[in-house]
Fold each of these.
Amino acid sequence: MTSPDGITWTERTSASGSTWWTSVASIGPQVVAVSDTNGAPYVGMYSPDAISWTQSTLPATNNWRCVRNNLSTYVAVSDSGVGNRVMTSTDGINWASQVSAADNAWKEVVWGPGVI
């Protein structure tokens, strides 16, 4: 859904039907969303305007819980998978799997100046 004022909302069609979208983030006009196992397949989606969405393929079939950005890179974390619970993208379309520090149940990622 989108809203120009936080009061009036318009329903939008997602890029992947009934997928359970868990998190959304944006860099400039590009908006991305990630999903988890409650809605197969394990996909992402992106939009230049938060109205028209296009599906993107994620590098691992994990439960993607959170996506954030640091003004130039999207970072997503997962609570499932082995050694691949982090992924990154500079455009929100093409994602690369990263080696996670540990196979913990990652739920959030936070950005601060100079740190992801």
Amino acid sequence: MKKTISCLCAVGLGGLLSGCVSPIGPIGAVGAGIYTDVSGPVAVTSNTRGSKMGQASSTGIICFATGDSSIKTAADNGGITKISHVDYHTTSVLGIYAKTTVTVYGD
């Protein structure tokens, strides 16, 4: 009985530390099991840096994720037709909560 309880506790702890929501895809490649707060570049073009900025986000809690953090949505949100560069910011806590925000700059 004690072995069964110990085994269940170990599996539960492993599940808690690994979580079931995490940033995925090329922009969420760097992450940690407990806490992640990472920003970086996604893309750059030959266009000059513009005066506009647009953002789009997606969020996940436990096993549910929603949102649209695509470059197109971020550009549309900022009224941008000529993109100069794109950045991202990802936050994840224990795999229970995750959020990715894509920021597009341009004119």
Amino acid sequence: MEHRRVVNPYHCVSIRFGPKSCQLVRAIDGQRFLAGSAPQLPLPGCETASCDCRYLHHDDRRAAKDRRANVRDRRAYRMKDRREGSGRRVND
């Protein structure tokens, strides 16, 4: 088996299981773990005779799209920055 050194600090893995996998690994289906804190395979307590589970590698723990693109009030991007100019105080 070839091991690679991962440079990305957010590199993560999920577990891909096969048709004969145990209920333990099915319970964590879709969950992503940082590569350094992922559970060892086979999972402790796995009752399958030959575990066919594998790690599936991802660049980031987030699976969904970036939420910042879903801003509801787009007017905020078109408004003038009111912080420009002087303040409310006499000595500003």
